Amino acid sequence: MITADNSKNSATFRIVAIFAIIILIGVFIFVKQRDLEHEPLIAIYEIAKTIDHLPGSSDDIFEMPWNAIYYDGSIYTTDLSGNIVIRLDYDFSRGEIIGREGRGPGEFLGPAFIRVSDNAVYVAEANNARIQIFDKKYTFRNYIHTRWSPVRTFGLSPNNTVLTYSWHQDFLVHEYNESGDTLARFGAAFGANPNMNRVQIETDSRDNVYIAFLNRPIIRKYNSRRNLVWEKDVSNLRVVSERLEEIKRLDGPEEGYNIISDIVVHKDRLYTHFTGYSPKVSGGIKIYIFRTSDGEVEGNMIIRTDIARAIRGMSFDDGDTLYFADPANAEIVKSVISDR
Asked: 19 and 58: one domain?
């Protein structure tokens, strides 16, 4: 027989249980947030060397280097304002200038990104809406026209297919062969605002594709068939949540303020730099490290620096030396793991 007291006790138990579940959920979220902000420090890097001009020439000063891509003992960078491509030896001892300003073959307007393979060099131009392909002696071979979409970044697969984001057309990733034929279109955008659909594209040796939305707290992985493997929302990272609050105080996300600055894949890890993380807070530049297998945060690394630096076009050599461009200070930076 169920009495009024039993019913009252049962109702009280249910209320207490509901509150307990709510508290547990809150604790889980707090712990998850805390875990993300106290992920293990995997490495500390020291800046070993910087360069702001062509070796041996005090006249050839970098204006706005936009990336520092390591390949086979050389560092390649595009000078976005200088309208040239620069190749440096890995130790910055020697270098050369490739191309000049213009719209013809071997000429550049706003060269924004570069990729290198065993037999070719690929240069994207923001102001010519194309990717030029050269042989390793820098002889022009072909154009890939990107149908009026300015190209500030692109990926290069192990099969030498080129991946760009069409952010003025259909807001999809387009994959081209070297002849400029479209092989695939994939991905999904956030509405039709070009400012909100700028991306950074990386690939790995297994032909997976990683896309970071620069203006959204979203990173995605696609497999070799271009199917979505995982999508990671990183808005619960403190650096990202603070950046989102800052954007709200400005003009709103529709204005296209960056959240993610740069990504690079190295040894099955995705290294990600977020906009707005102050050296005063972190003791340097903090790079978050995600597992490529599932997109979960594994840890972070710090690049020690006494001055504020921008990060563009990160790359690693065959070991663990990290190179990047610092357009704010017009330098290419080489950094190594600290032995202290």
From this structure: no
Q: Same domain, yes or no, for 52 and 12?
A: no
pTM of the model: 0.86
Residues 20 and 58 reside in one and the same domain:
no
Mark whether 226 and 104 lie in a shared domain: yes
Q: Do residue 22 and residue 126 come from a single domain?
A: no
Beta bridge partners of 142: 133
Identify whether residues 122 and 247 lie together within a single domain. Answer: yes
Domain range enclosing 28? 1-38
> Are residue 57 and residue 23 in the same domain, yes or no?
no
What is the residue whose two structure tokens read 């461009």?
Answer: 325
Tokens encoding 93: 């001892």
- Nearest residue to 273 (alpha-carbon basis) of 200, 169, 193, 332: 200
The whole-number pLDDT of residue 282 equals: 56
Report yes or no: 68 and 326 within 8 Å, Cβ to Cβ.
no
CA–CA distance from 238 to each of 38, 216, 289, 296 (Å)?
Answer: 10, 15, 15, 15
Residue whose C-alpha is closest to residue 303's, from 39, 46, 25: 46
Rounded Cα–Cα distance for residues 256 and 271 (Å): 22
pLDDT by 10-residue block (mean), the chain, 340 residues: 54 57 50 52 93 86 95 96 96 95 95 96 92 96 80 91 84 92 88 71 97 90 98 91 81 67 95 72 82 95 89 95 95 89
Question: Is the domain of 93 the same as that of 185?
Answer: yes
Determine contact, residues 200/164, Cβ cutoff 8 Å. no
Contacts of the segment 54-62: beta carbons below 8 A, 24+ positions apart: 54/86, 54/95, 54/96, 54/97, 55/88, 55/89, 55/92, 55/93, 55/94, 55/95, 56/94, 56/95, 60/97, 61/330, 62/86, 62/330, 62/331, 62/332
